[in-house]
Design brief:
Elements (H helix, E strand, L loop, with lengths): L3 E5 L6 H9 L17 E7 L2 E7 L11 H15 L2 E7 L6 H13 L3 E6 L7 H7 L8 E2 L8 H22 L5 E2 L17 E6 L6 H9 L17 E7 L2 E7 L12 H16 L2 E7 L6 H12 L3 E7 L7 H15 L8 E3 L8 H15 L5 H14 L12 E9 L3 E6 L7 H14 L8 E6 L14 H8 L5
Parallel strand pairs: 1-3, 1-4, 4-5, 5-6, 8-10, 8-11, 11-12, 12-13, 15-16
Antiparallel strand pairs: 2-3, 7-14, 9-10, 14-15
Amino acid sequence: MTFSLAIVGRPNVGKSTLFNRLVGKRLALVDDQPGVTRDLREGAARLGDLRFTVIDTAGLEEATDESLQGRMRKLTERAVDMADICLFMIDARTGVTPTDEVFAEILRKRSKHVILAANKAEGSAADAGVIEAYGLGLGEPIRLSAEHGEGLNDLYSILMPLADGFEERAAADAPDVDVPVDDDDPDAPRVPTAKRPLQIAVVGRPNAGKSTLINKILGEDRLLTGPEPGITRDAISLQIEWDGLHTRIFDTAGMRKKARVQEKLEKLSVSDGLRAVKFAEVVIVLLDAAIPFEQQDLRIADLAEREGRAVVVAVNKWDLEPEKQQKLRDLRESFERLLPQLRGAPMVTVSAMTGKGLDRLRAAVEKAHDVWNRRVTTAQLNRWLTGMLEAHPPPAPGGKRIKMRYMTQAKTRPPGFVVMCSHPEKLPESYTRYLINGLRVDFDMPGTPIRLYMRSQSDKNPYKAKKKAGPSSLRKHLGKPPK
């Protein structure tokens, strides 16, 4: 999914019908009654060989107040801001209306890529409406029939070159992850540069102070902040040099519990934040010192670990904490207990408001990135494995002893290791955790996700099933003796 396409237009022009056709399912309600779609709906779309995210929006209404129509309009405007491409639909049989003209003007100002589509364009009755559409100043309209699937080839032809550009953008933004270990790699370990900066996502619950923290790092108010939770609605990336460290920072919308995400707008924001985690190398999980480690904080940190990203925990609003030493001890104990998979991850106390602790945060981010790139030689690993086996041999389930022969590092970003052994399927999870925790301690890899794979190596003697060699078979094998 390299780009997103928002389908916009006034009510009852056929947006949901086209949405259903692109996703291949009847996900959106369709009715002749205008205004059936009242919120945003996202789906995975397919058009030829293109794969993208399509967003079905509520009909654009002219209301701007806090009525249902006004809120629907705000929702659609935010979808326009967040989408890479807007498909503006009009009804070719009705022709261009004053409302269409108003929203064409909005789209010209708010969207970089607008495709104009005249829907319900089958038959000669729609010709006049298609000709009128040229007057909107959005280029040549596509003749569409979402109901019958006509005109999709023309849509594909316009989307294809745009998709190529977004694919290049995604490739440029995507971090190198699961990098194979190659001793001849001249770029190892990866060092952040202005061209390929270290990518950081700042994530956390709404109103934890993410935008305030980034503004303080930048040294200027570049992001909108305020006491109301959820001001940031989409992921914003900013490239800066943070005390000599080339970084690109993603400020994401606050992630709330799903049950509390009432607005579809906020659901879009959460998915945008999850995408930011995937584009990041280091994830800063920002907690509020007053209410740390709520369930949602744990889920965010766990998501970053599952995605294989380095994690730094930052506890914000530390300047307001009265019992600092006791609070810090409690936080560390809670972190070790609730997130054992991130044992040893750096925890830094900061004040986004005053800037205190930002130097420690920067050092923790750089250290986490270094550990994420850590490489260990095969010789070191096998000496270490011998010691671990002697200290605590693997179990023998069903009387079958599990033999571990050798170990090597296969990948970095995050570090990934392979152990060749017999009966890997019988090795309990607890023994794998024992080895992972040992790797963390002995090779100084605190907090970073570690991937440990057990691979089977045959224990069979290749000559075991063959007939025992006697004198005649030996002679046959060796040939006639020399005279």
